[in-house]
Design a protein that fits this description.
This protein has about 300 residues and is α/β, with parallel strands linked by helices. Helices cover about 50% and strands about 15% of the residues. It has an 8-stranded mixed β-sheet with strand order 3-2-1-4-5-6-7-8, sandwiched between helices. Helix 1 links the parallel strand 1 and strand 2. The radius of gyration is 20 Å and the shape is globular.
Length: about 300
């Protein structure tokens, strides 16, 4: 199926890059920027995506709507889209591309199905299109194959199954490892710093775990810029594990680490403004400062 006009909400780091590659592929791409931040508006302006202002205008004009948001906003956005569909005769295909648990995806699917529109479950893995290896968008649901025409050289489309929730599940398990590892790295380094063991631990990592140390140096210093939106993702991952009979505790802990980082002074940065000269040690010091301010005696680093 062809989708000449595609709506995307929102124009964040991933959304604006998806919009750009779809524009390059010949689609008319729309977004709704009423009430959005200056950063989001600036990202959209650089892509060729049209700002139609309101969500109502987006729903009326789009053949397909892609929801690419922080996971905590996914359900409320689906409700807003559903309300606009009920208020008009428009029924664009709706694809939830957010990092949410399968149960959350199914719940959103029920909201959209209540309007009579088609719902497709999606999960995005990899960096935004155009940065490194092609982005992978996994899809599931009875109508998932309809979106295969959206594939681009820098954005692959892969159908998982006809069951809603499986694409989201794949994303959850993938991010459980990648982002979960980032929080474990941070926890280990911060714990060692609290005991005055940073220097010998880093030396040991350099001697026996050079790949792990390189990974930490490449990610931990800039995690705070993304930490706030990843709190919700860890909570969705915890729910995913709980729903299949496994412990949720590991990723509840990961959520707590991201909460700490989101409360640190470094969280005021964005991916565009992050200080790329910052060392691993400097980042851990900033996180430790936040830990001391929150009152370590409480035992809750997110207080």
């Amino acid at each position: 199926m062809e989708f000449p006009t595609i709506g995307i909400v929102s124009m964040g780091d991933m959304g604006h890059a998806v919009g750009r590659t779809l524009c390059t592929g010949g689609h008319r791409v729309l977004t709704a920027l009423d009430g959005r931040s200056a950063r989001t508006q600036a990202l959209a302006e650089a892509t060729g995506v049209e700002n139609v202002g309101s969500l109502s205008a987006l729903v009326t004009q789009a053949d397909l709507v892609l929801s690419i948001l922080p996971p905590a906003a996914a359900t409320d956005f689906a409700k807003s889209i559903a309300a606009q569909m009920h208020a008009t005769t428009s029924r664009p295909v709706f694809v939830d591309c957010n990092a949410i648990a399968p149960a959350t995806a199914r719940s959103i699917g029920d909201i959209i199905a209540g309007t009579g529109a088609t719902f497709i479950d999606g999960g995005i893995i990899g960096a935004p299109p155009g940065r490194s290896a092609p982005t992978r968008i996994y899809l599931s649901g009875p109508d998932a194959t309809q979106l295969e025409s959206l594939a681009r050289p820098d954005m692959l489309i892969r159908t998982v199954s006809a069951e809603i929730g499986t694409a989201s599940g794949l994303k959850m398990f993938y991010a459980a490892l990648t982002k979960g590892t980032m929080t474990l790295d941070t926890l280990v380094l911060l714990g060692a710093r609290q005991m005055g063991l940073s220097a010998p631990l880093l030396q040991e990592f350099s001697d026996s775990q050079p790949a792990a140390l390189k990974r930490m140096e490449a990610s931990v210093p800039w995690l705070a810029a993304d930490a706030e939106r990843w709190v919700g993702e860890m909570e969705e991952i915890a729910k995913t594990f709980s729903d299949v009979g496994l412990t949720s505790a590991m990723h509840q802990g990961a959520s707590a680490v991201f909460q700490l980082l989101a409360a640190s002074a470094l969280s005021s940065e964005t991916r565009e403004t992050a200080d790329r000269t910052r060392s691993l040690e400097d980042a851990i010091e900033a996180f430790a400062l936040r830990l001391s301010e929150s009152g370590p005696a409480s035992g809750d680093p997110t207080a």
